[in-house]
Design a protein that fits this description.
It contains 10 helices and 8 strands. Helices cover 37% and strands 16% of the residues. Strand 4, helix 5 and strand 5 form a beta-alpha-beta unit. It has a single domain, classed as 3-Layer(aba) Sandwich (Arginase, Chain A). The chain is an alpha/beta fold. It binds manganese (II) ion. Manganese (II) ion binds next to loops.
Length: 273
């Protein structure tokens, strides 16, 4: 979904699908940890770009929701900025009802129209997802959160729904393995959606993103956190906010392609069960 009309700072995420396709030539099939060949296990296809006018965000939401709704398969979507996640979840909720959502990000993405006078920019999707009841109460897990907040109320809002915050620091302190063990326990057999904002990862490992925040998780922790979700009933995922014009030597695109592969691997493991 080559859309970055919801970007508040540095644009360019609309180019991510093109660059992730290019570097995905280096991604192979066999997953040594899960012991499966992802592309033998899954019937996997590049569905191409969803088409919408790049300057019309309402048209983007309509096109994305319609496209996801008519898919028989579980989607793994490459953004685009984080505003693409709302129409994906609107479509998936029609199929699965309320889902558990694992949200990787530096930011809470709970802003509303009070920021920038706009209710659909890339800092708002999680607020809409809560307000529209697309996530089951108590089943939102936000991982990698850090840095300055707008107000002291920002975290209260997230916690008031019984949602769980795991800061970037907590990932380092507790380890991906222990965090994932807790997530698997608490999510159980619920349908799961994973939304992965690349800025959850430290700008040292992922410089190609529009709103970087220092002090993030490492690329190794990020890959381990996805791997550790194996066994959950993952019904969809996205990777957003990769911004190739700000990247160096494709560092961020390569990481993005590997994160997408880990998401596909989770679906391959799910199919096996
Ligand atoms: Mn985000």
């Amino acid at each position: 979904m080559p859309h970055d009309g919801g970007t508040t700072y540095q644009p360019g995420a609309r180019l991510a699908p093109f660059h992730l396709r290019r570097v995905s030539a280096l991604v192979q099939g066999h997953h040594p940890d899960h012991g499966v060949d992802v592309f033998e296990r899954l019937r996997c296809v590049d569905g191409g770009n969803i088409v919408f006018p790049p300057f019309d965000r309402a048209a983007m939401r309509t096109a994305v929701e319609a496209e996801i709704e008519q898919l028989a398969a579980a989607p793994v979507v490459i953004g685009g900025d984080h505003s693409i996640t709302l129409p994906i979840l609107r479509a998936l909720a029609k199929r699965h009802g309320q889902m558990a959502i694992v949200h990787f990000d530096a930011h809470l993405d709970l802003s509303g129209a009070d920021v920038w006078g706009d209710d659909y920019h890339h800092g708002t999707p999680i607020r809409h997802i809560i307000d529209e009841g697309l996530v089951e109460p108590g089943q939102l897990y936000q991982i990698g959160i850090r840095g300055p907040r707008g107000t002291a109320n920002d975290d209260l809002l997230a916690r008031s729904g019984g949602h769980t915050l795991v800061s970037a620091e907590a990932v380092a302190e507790r380890s991906p393995k222990r965090i994932c063990a807790e997530l698997r326990e608490r999510i159980g057999t619920r349908p799961v959606y994973i939304t992965f904002d690349i800025d959850a990862i430290d700008p040292a490992f992922a410089p190609g993103t529009g709103t970087p925040v220092p002090g993030g998780i490492t690329s190794r922790e990020a890959l381990g956190l996805l791997r550790g979700l194996a066994g959950l009933d993952v019904r969809g995922a996205d990777l957003v906010e990769v911004c190739p014009p700000l990247d160096h030597a494709d560092i961020t695109s390569h990481l993005g392609a590997n994160l997408v592969w880990e998401m596909l691997a989770l679906m391959a493991v799910r199919v096996e069960r």
